[in-house]
TrEMBL record:
Its EC number is 2.5.1.54. InterPro entries: Aldolase_TIM (IPR013785), Class-I_DAHP_synthase (IPR052899), DAHP1/KDSA (IPR006218), DAHP_syn_2 (IPR006268). SUPFAM superfamilies: Aldolase. This is 3-deoxy-7-phosphoheptulonate synthase. The keyword Transferase applies.
Amino acid sequence: LASKAHANHKSVIQLSDHVTVGGKDLLIVGGPCTVENLAQMEAVASRLLTAPIQALRGGVYKPRTSPYAFQGMGLEGLEILATVRQRYHLPVVTEVMAISQIEEIAAQADMLQIGSRNMQNYDLLKALGQAGKPILLKRGLSATIEEFVLAAEYILAHGNPNVVLCERGIRSFDTYTRNVLDLGAVAALRQITHLPIIVDPSHAAGKRELVADLARAAIACGADGLIIECHPEPEQSVSDARQALSLEEMAELVASLKPIAVAV
Ligand code: PEP
Ligand code: MN
């Protein structure tokens, strides 16, 4: 179902009345790694609404490497997302970590993110077939392109045709960047599948000074959009502070994408 042979045109997926991904407009998703409080999310939405970004991100259930690290605000964070979503008419994307969270998150969010660590959680993927919302499927930390496409296939095969792929960097021997952004995968996926493909340069880079260049390269490579971490006070981020852009940096980056998108 994911293969290009199955659909002879590219899938365009609807996030809201006005926002799509996979069509001619880029989807730029911006926001913090973690929802921390209402003021933080208001600051992001109000500054970036006109940048413009098309959707907001923010995790409320966080897959943290250490069990002692902040695990996310949960339902309280979801309420904050819902408030900002309504106030600014911006679709929101947030991560679902467990089958038990699907219903509550699908009731408030416009797209459900499946994180890298859950890309091969097949029971979760099957359950997403009935989620009734588009899915943003992130590539596993060390998943091959074929494993990635087959993970999407699980969701499609179980009844949800609206899957957006996200390349977010893969593990390698080099620790200078957090992960290695695989733009080769973006080029390949565009040939293999009709599903939209977006790129997360933040988790690939791990360092804010590398994010903008990777983002521009991704668009030049034909990605349908980007998901980027930014924060009103990047250094104060409760998670992934080192890779967070300031809101000004984010706005500048968004502006710099336009000529590249036109040229592709
Ligand atoms: C995130 O988007 O904050 C995240 C945890 O991403 P990934 O699953 O790609 O590590
Ligand atoms: Mn993060």
